[in-house]
Amino acid sequence: MKLFFSPASPFVRKVMVCAIERGIGGLIEKLPSAAHPINQDASIKAHNPTGKVPTLITEDGKPVYDSRVICEYLDAIGAAPKLFPAVGKERWPALVLHSAADELLDAALLARYESVARPEALRWEDWHKGQLTKINTTVASFSATWIEHLENKVDIGTIAVGCALGYLDFRFPDIGWRNGNDRLAAWYAKFSERPSMKQTAPTA
Fold it and tell me: Under the phi-then-psi rule, with left for phi > 0, alpha for psi from -120 to 50, and beta for the rest, what region is 151?
């Protein structure tokens, strides 16, 4: 398999954490790419019309995207314990938590693009603040609603949250998400020690 890859992308990181957790990280060749919200990489667009990373090319040459679909695709390979619960009470919380973490990341990326990609004269401060509000309320929900799940599971939801919080540390170090979230911070510190997280720590 081949993966269009950016070392700074939290969505790429989530895919690679899933692959490593399932023991198949070594089966994925990382393809360098230049994904950008404006200047899109033609090599990615040849396989994914949005030009986004991550985009996976399967062993038989078929493209798979976006990150949620790629993670589930990888979960079907190999014999390691599944990260996507199959049915019932275990499945839906994991999927909802996965979605919440991805929504946080969507807001974080929009906030970052507003600061680094949009010309300064066109920036909208209230819109930027709105994205930061989404980040803060979602982090609060991790503490108030999801902490027991996080502390007791390793599934697609907990992986997505770990990657989302890691992205906040990487790109938004001043946001102070740990303030008032001691238990969440303690969980994240422990979760970050997993080999899959340490091997995929983002770089500029």
Answer: alpha
Query: How large is the angle between the packed helices 182-191 and 125-144, nearest 10 degrees?
Result: 80
Task: Tell me if residue 2 falls in helix, strand or coil.
Answer: strand
Q: Identify whether the C-beta of residue 15 lies closer than 8 Å to the C-beta of residue 200.
A: no
DSSP bridge partners of 55: 4
Cα distances from 129 to residues 84, 102, 134, 171, 188, in angstroms, run 33, 18, 9, 16, 25
Q: With 90 as the cut, is the pLDDT of residue 118 above it?
A: no
Model pLDDT for residues 8-30, shown as the tens digit of each residue: 999 999 999 999 999 999 999 99
Phi/psi of residue 16, each to 5°?
-70, -35
Alpha-carbon dihedral 7, 107, 15, 90, rounded to 10 degrees: 160
**Where do the DSSP E strands lie in the chain?**
2-5, 29-32, 55-57, 63-64
Supply φ then ψ for residue 31, to 5 degrees: -100, 120
Left, alpha or beta for 165 (phi > 0: left; psi -120 to 50: alpha)? alpha
